[in-house]
Design goal:
This protein has 128 residues and is mainly α. Helix content is 69%, strand content 0%. The termini are far apart.
Length: 128
């Protein structure tokens, strides 16, 4: 359990968040004369990792634990195939959720550079 929390979640999470943060701030920014400065905070990148890691944890630790009687059959093609399929599903789902996390960042800021969901002073003067 120590390994899954401190190495899999925290250490690899810090590394994945750092790489995602650097990549998004240097390569995914839209720079123009009339655009708002776009930046991804490191904690946002780590939050994306946390949200993506939870289903991976459930698949690789909980579902795999429940399927141990099936997966521990010696020299079984089905057990090997099922184990590899669980890992493939978990990692594909992790990368997909990570993609959705960075893809959703653009929808937080509207054209005026204000966060959606909050009314600006101009909107309040107009009455909504």
């Amino acid at each position: 359990m120590f390994w899954s929390i401190f190495v899999d979640f925290l250490a690899l999470g810090v590394l994945v968040a750092l790489v995602g943060w650097l990549f998004s701030n240097f390569n995914l920014r839209v720079q123009g004369v009339h655009t708002v400065e776009q930046k991804v905070e490191w904690l946002y990148a780590f939050d994306i990792h946390c949200n993506s890691f939870f289903p991976l944890f459930l698949i690789l630790y909980v579902v795999q634990f429940l399927l141990l009687p099936v997966l521990l059959v010696p020299e079984s093609f089905f057990a090997t195939f099922l184990s590899n399929t669980l890992y493939a599903i978990a990692f594909v789902y992790y990368f997909y959720l990570t993609f959705l996390g960075y893809n959703g960042k653009a929808s937080f800021i509207d054209e005026r550079g204000e966060e959606r969901g909050e009314m600006s002073n101009k909107d309040e003067e107009k009455g909504g």
